[in-house]
Amino acid sequence: MHSTFSLARAARLLLLLAAILAAALPLQALAGLMLNPTRVVFTKNQRAAQVELINSDSTPATYRISLVNRRMTESGEFTSVDTAGPDDRFADAMLSFSPRQVTLLPGSAQVVRVMLRKPATLTPGEYRSHLHFEKLADTSGASSVEQQSAGTQQIGVVLNTLIGASIPVIVRHQTEGAKVTLGALDLQRGAKGALLSFQIGRSGDSSVYGDVSAAFAPQGGTEHLLAKAAGVAIYTPNPMRKASLNLTMPPGLPLAHGTLHLRFHERAEAGGAVLAEAALALP
């Protein structure tokens, strides 16, 4: 009986890991820790969600779980916030979770349940806090799940001030949505390749989250994908985020006499629709 349970449990973990890989979600936030999903969004009448922690390391690990508040800068960095500003809307006061500390054996998993209780007089809008997982046994590294990318590149800044991993918990109450724009495209060429810098604009009462891709189409030729960054977010109340992509050209194809296309897509699991596009003509 015990053997059957262990095999079933191992099979479930393998299937979960395979599903995460297939979805191209950010995996490693801290050595040996995997989280699924990597963001929680409460909409409409949803009142509960869950996050699964998986210890993929070969040794046991203990994690302390907490809610923290952070503000995103124009460059994508996160800074800790002790006192809310006039434009900040944090969700921690209406969120609870359990358990608050877990010890995971190698290869084991634990579900953390997140509960939402919205006040009756809650003002319409989007509220956000971050669920933080602090590894107590090993303090050798730090990063943030929402900043990691499973694609060929990353847009984001690794957090070096907190030991652990974090995911956003977003509460949308009677929101109308958001629009995305792309602009300020600037191509810089150097000995090591080309760098495309740009700005992602956000308007509306919700954050945006998607993938960014850059492709080049020579005059009269086929379009070639040059770069892609997955899981790029702009959180409220920020109206804009600055970013850049390193472009990789196919052998024998010069980055000239054509058009460079920059696109912001929904995540594949959301449909993959193009939400914004901008072009840069290259002589």
Automatic annotation (TrEMBL):
What Gene3D superfamilies does UniProt report for this protein, alphabetically? Answer: Immunoglobulins
**Protein name stated in the entry:** Fimbria/pilus periplasmic chaperone
